[in-house]
Amino acid sequence: MKTISIDHLPRVEGNGGVTATIDGNIVTNVKFVINEGPRLVEHLTVGKTPEEDVSIAPRICAICTLSHKNAVLRAMENALDVKVPAKVTLLRELMHLGEFIESHSLHVFYLALPDYVGFPNAIAMASKFPFEVKIALEMKQFGNMIMKILSGRYIHGENPVIGGFGRYPSREDLIWIKNRAIQFMPFVYRTVDLFCGLDYPAVPESETIYACCEPGEGKYGLWGDEIILSTGQKIPRDDYKSLTNEFVVPHSLCKRSRYNGNPYSVGALARINILGERLDGEAGKAFQKYFNRRWKINPLFHNAAQALEILYAFETIPGLVDEVLKIVENPPLVPYKTKNGQGTGLVEAPRGLLIHHYEIKNGLVAAADIITPTAQNAEDIERYCYLAAQKLLDEGHEDQIRDRLDLVVRAFDPCISCSAHMAEVKQVPPGNWKKELREVLASRPVIIGIGKDNRSDDQAGLILAEELKKVGFEDVYLEAEIESDHILEAKAERSFLFLDIVQMGEQPGKIAVLPLQHVFWSSVLSHRLLPSVSGRLSYGQIKKSHLLGIQPQSLEADGSISEPVLRAIGEILQAIRK
Amino acid sequence: MANEKVKIGIYELTGCAGDALLIVDCEEELVNIFTAASIDAFLMAKSDNQHGPLDVALVEGSVSTEREKEELLDIRQRAKLVVAIGNCACVGGIQAAFLDPRDWEKNLRKVYGNVEFSHAKPIQSKPIDAYIHVDYYLPGCPIGKEQFLSTFTRLLSGNPPDLYRFPVCVECKWNENDCLLNKGILCLGPLTLAGCGSVCPNHHLPCFGCWGPTEEANHTAEYRLLLEKGFDAEAIKKRMANYSGTRISDFFDQLRKEKR
Question: What is the model's pTM?
Answer without folding.
Answer: 0.83
